[in-house]
Amino acid sequence: MRISVEKLRVGLLAGAALLVVATVGFLEYSHLRVRQALHDLPGKMGVDIRQQADAFTYSQTVQGRTIFTVHAAKAIEHASGVFTLHDVGVVLYGQNNNRADRIYGKQFEYDKNAGVIHAAGEVHIDLQAPEPADAAAKMDFAEGKDLKNVPKDDRLIHLKTSNLVFTQKLGTAATDQEIEFTYGAFTGHARGAEYDSHSGILTLQSTVTVNGIQSGKPISLTAAHAIMDRQNRRTTLTLPRYSAAGEAAQQTAEARHAVVYTRTDGSVECVEAEGSVKIADGRGGRMESSRAEVLLNERSQPQSARMLGDIFYSDETADRNAFGEAHRSALARFDAQGRLQHVTLDGAVALHDVDKRHGSNGSSDSTGKAPLLNSRQMNADTVELTLAADDGNRGRLWLREARAIGSARVESVAPAKPGGAATRSTMSGDALTARFVHDANGMHLSTVSGAGNTSLKRIDENGVEQTSSGHTLEAAFKAPQQGVEQIATAVQQGDVVMTRSAPGAETQRATAQKASYNGDTGQATLTGGVTLTGSGAVLWADHATMNRTTGDATADGNVKANYRQAAQSEIIHVLAQRAELKKSADQTLFYGAAGRPARMWQGGSQVEAPVLVLSQKQKSLVARDSGPGTALVVHTVLADSTNPEAPQKPATEVKTPGIARVISRELTYSDATREASFTGGVRIESVDGIIHGQQATAYLRSAQDKTGAAGFLGGSVERIVVAGKIRMEQPGRSATGEQIVYTAADGVFVLTGAPHALPKVVDETHGTISGAELRFRAQDKSIVVSNENNYGNGTRVHTTTREKQ
Fold first, then answer.
1. Chain Cα centroid distance, residue 672
2. Which of 375, 351, 353, 364 lies closest to 425 in space, CA to CA?
3. Please, which residues bridge with residue 162 across strands?
4. How far does CA 445 lie from the centroid of its chain?
5. Measuring CA to CA, how many Å separate 754 from each of 73, 737, 758, 786, 791?
6. 688 close to 728: Cβ distance less than 8 angstroms
7. Is the pLDDT of residue 654 over 50?
8. d(CA 112, CA 57)
9. Which residues have a Cβ under 8 Å from the Cβ of 269 and sit 6 or more positions away?
10. Nearby residues of 18 by Cβ (< 8 Å), 6 or more positions away
11. Nearest CA to 157 among 191, 125, 135?
C-alpha cells in the first residue's frame, strides 16, 4: 500500500503530540511521586526536619534584660524541637548585663525545649571580653575565633575545649574534656571545666597548669583544682604550686589552698595561701608557715608578704647554714623592683647562722658529740631584718640590719684551737640592733646597739667568764679573722655591773655609771661612782680601769676600800687617791696624793703612808714611800684591840700601854706571824715615852675580837724590839743604846748597847746610869743594871732603886 508524503507528515505530527502529552503526564505523575517520596523520606529515615534557615538568632530575656543570645550562620530545625546550628556564637551577658562572654564553634545542637546547647566538636570560650555593639555583625562565625574590628584586650580569657554542654536553666557550661586556655601572656591546660554564666565563675576541675612570662621571666603554676570568680576578681586554687625563674635559681611557692585577687585590669593584687605554705628561693632558702598573704603592685611584683602561725626558715649555701623560727607572724616588705627589703618576725623568734667556712679543726661542744663551727644565734620576742641587694652577685640579698625587741639575745660561738674549749659570747637586752657590712670576704657584724637591761657575757677557752650589764650598749666589731668576730670597742651606760670569774678563783665585781671597753688592749674604763668587789673587799673610786683578760685594775680619785678577812671580823678601811689591783701577784697598791697619804685602819690601829701594798691571801701589808728618800713617811698606830669583855687586870698589876704610834720610812706586816717590821729609821711614841731607832719589830699577841676573829694589825702589843742608835725619852729620864726590848706583859724595857758603847740612862734624880743591860719600868722609875755579859767586863756597876712613896 502506497503512503503519500502528506499522510506521513500528518502521522508524525500526531505521534509527536501524543508523545508530548504522554511525557507531560509522566512528568506530572513523577513530580507527584517525588513530592510524596520526599514527604515520606524523613519519616522513613528517622529524621524530622521542619525547616532550614540562614542567620539564625535566638535570645533569652529575663525582666527586660537579655541573658544570652545564640547566633548561627545556618540552622536546621527538627520536629523534635532540636536545632542543628553551624558556625555558632553564644553571647552570655550575665544577670546584670555587665559582661559579654562568648562560646563559639563549628556545630552545636540546641534543644530548645530542654534549654540545652551541646557542642560535640571543638569549641571556644572568651571570658571577660569587651562587649560589642552588634555581636551578630562582628562575630566571625566562619572562623569562630574572635571579633572583627575589636582591639585586643589583655583581660580576655580564651578557652578551647570540646564536648561542651550549656544548660539554659542553670546558666552553666560544662565539659569533662581537656581544656586549653590563654590569658594575656599566659597559656594553660586543665581537665574538665564548668562555667556559671550567672555568677561568671569558671571552675577548672583538675590538673591545672599555667605557663607564661612575668616581668620578663618564665613562670609556671599548677593546681589540682581552680575556681575563677571574675565578678569578685578572685581565683581559688587547691594544692597550688608556683614556680618562677630567678636571677640564678628557680623560685617556688606552694600551699594546700590559695586565693588570688586581681585588679580591674587583670593584674594580680593579692594572694592568700593557707595550709603548709612553703616558699623557696631555689638557692637553699626556704620558709614554711600555716598561712601567708602577698600583696603585689600593678607590675605583679611583690610589695608585702605576711606569714602567720608557726614559721620556719632555712637557708643553706656552700658557705653558710642559716635557719630560724617564729611562732606568731612574719611580715616582709619589698622595694619598687620587688626585691625583699624588710622582714619583721614576731613570737618567740630564734635565728641561727653557722659559718661553714671556718670550722673547729676537730674541737667539739661540751657534750663531745660533734665538732663546733663558728655560729651566731639571735632570740627575741620580735626581730626586724633590713636587707640590701648585692648588684654584683646576681642581686643576692644580704642582711644590713637586725633589730631584736623583747628579751633580745645574740650568742656567738668561736671554736678554740684543737683540744681547747669554744669561746662563747652573748649580748642581751630589751632591744638590740645589729648592723652588718658586706665586702669581698662576705657579710660580717659591724656594730651592735642595745637599750634596756643590756648585758655582755664572754667565756674564753680557759673558762674565764666575764659579764657586764647596763641600761644601754654601743659595740663596734673588728673585721673577722677565720670567721671569728671580736669587739673593737664597747660602751655601756647606766648602772653598769661587770663581773669576772675564773675557775678556782673568787668572782670579781665592778659597778659604775659608764664602762668603755677597748678590744685591742683588753681594758675597760669605768666612770661615775665606781665600785670594785672581790676577795672580801669593796673599793670605791671616781673612775677605774680594768684588764678584762688578767683581772688587774686601777682605780683613781677618792679611793676608798673595805676589807673583811672573815665573815664576822672587823672591817679594814682604806682611803687613797689611787689604787692598783694586781690579780696574779695578789696585791693591791694604794697611793696617796700630795700632802695626803694613803690611810688604812681597823679598829684603833691604823697606817698612813704614800704607798700601801696589801696582800689579801698572804694577809700582809707593806707601807712605804712612793720613791727613794730618807723621810719618815709611814705613820702607824698600834692599838690594843683585845676583847673589851675579857676580865680586866687588878689595879695593882702593871698596865700595858694602850696605843703605840710608830713613825718609820717603811713598814712590813705579816698577819700570819703577827709581826710588824719598821725600817729606815723609826720613832715610837706611847704613854711611856718616845723611842728613836733605825728599825723596830712589833710582835702582836694573837688576840681575837668579840666575834672570835683575829683583827688585821689587831690585838695588844706583846713586845717591841727597837735596834740601831736607840734614843729614848721619858718624863724625867732619857736613855741611849743599840737595842731596846719592851715586853708588854711586865711593862719592862731592856736596853742594851755595843762593846764600844754601853747603854745608859740619864735620870734627873739619880744621874747617869750605864751597864751592859739596863732594865726599867716607866711606872716606878726603877732601873736594874746588869753586867752579866761580856759587855760588862771591867765596867763599874751603878744600881739605883727609888723608894716607894
1. 53
2. 375
3. 122
4. 12
5. 152, 8, 6, 14, 7
6. no
7. no
8. 13
9. 233, 261, 262, 263, 295, 296
10. none
11. 125
* Rounded mean pLDDT, 264-271: 83
Closest C-alpha among 235, 208, 211 to residue 222 = 208
**CA–CA distance from 331 to each of 265, 282, 309, 345, 513 (Å)?**
27, 21, 12, 7, 38
Residues 6 or more apart in contact with residue 597 via CB below 8 angstroms = 608, 609, 610, 633, 635
Report whether CATH 2.60.450.10 matches the domain 49-198: yes
Topology (CATH) of 332-501: lipopolysaccharide transport protein A fold (2.60.450)
| pLDDT at position 107 | 86
The residue among 278 and 800 whose pLDDT is bigger is 278
pLDDT at residue number 738: 92
pLDDT, tens only, 274-328: 999 998 877 778 889 999 999 988 877 888 989 999 999 888 877 778 889 999 9
Q: What is the pTM of this model?
A: 0.69
CATH architecture of 205-297+305-309: Sandwich (2.60)
How far are the Cα atoms of 8, 35, 276, 660, 805 from residue 689, in angstroms, in the given order?
Answer: 205, 170, 97, 10, 22
Amino acid at 374: N
For 523-553, write each residue's pLDDT tens digit: 899 999 899 887 778 899 999 998 877 888 8
- 3-class secondary-structure state, position 19: helix
Quick one: CA dihedral 744, 748, 749, 755, positive or negative? negative
Contact (CB, 8 A) for 487 and 519: yes
Cell readout for 643 is 676583847
Q: Please state the CATH superfamily assignment of the domain spanning residues 634-792 in this structure.
A: Lipopolysaccharide (LPS) transport protein A like domain (2.60.450.10)
Cell of 435: 648592723
Asked whether this chain's domains 205-297+305-309 and 332-501 adopt the same fold, the reply is yes
Strand pairing report for 423-439 and 396-414? antiparallel
Which residue spans within 616-732 are E strands per DSSP? Answer: 620-624, 634-639, 659-670, 675-686, 689-693, 695-700, 717-730
Average pLDDT over all residues of the chain:
78
One-letter amino acid of 172:
T
Contact (Cβ atoms closer than 8 angstroms) between residue 536 and residue 563: yes
Calpha distance 801→805 (Å, rounded): 12
Q: Per-residue pLDDT tens for 192-221?
A: 999 887 777 889 999 999 998 876 778 899
* Least confident stretch, 137-146, 359-368, 403-412, 609-618: 137-146
- Whole-angstrom distance, CA of residue 605 vs CA of residue 566: 18
122 touches 179 (CB < 8 A): no
**In which band, very low, low, confident or very high, does the pLDDT at 791 lie, cut at 50, 70 and 90?**
very low
Contacts for 3 with CB less than 8 Å, ≥ 6 apart: none
> Cell numbers 687613797 label which residue?
576
Question: What is the average per-residue pLDDT within 658-669?
Answer: 88
Contact 784, 774 (CB under 8 A): yes
Instruction: Report DSSP letters for 119-141, one per residue.
Output: EEEEEEEEESPPPPS-HHHHB-T
Percent of all residues in the chain with a pLDDT value above 70, rounded to a whole number: 77
Q: Residue written as cell 628561693?
A: 281
What span, in angstroms and rounded, lies between the C-alpha atoms of 654 and 402? 80
| pLDDT of the residue at 491 | 93
Is 420 a residue whose pLDDT tops 60? yes
* Dihedral of the alpha carbons of 535, 664, 555, 457, in degrees to the nearest 10: -20
What residue segments make up the domains of the chain, in order of their start?
Answer: 49-198, 205-297+305-309, 332-501, 634-792
Return the SS3 of 47: coil
Which one-letter amino acid corresponds to residue 302? P
How many Å apart are CA 592 and CA 635, to the nearest integer? Answer: 13
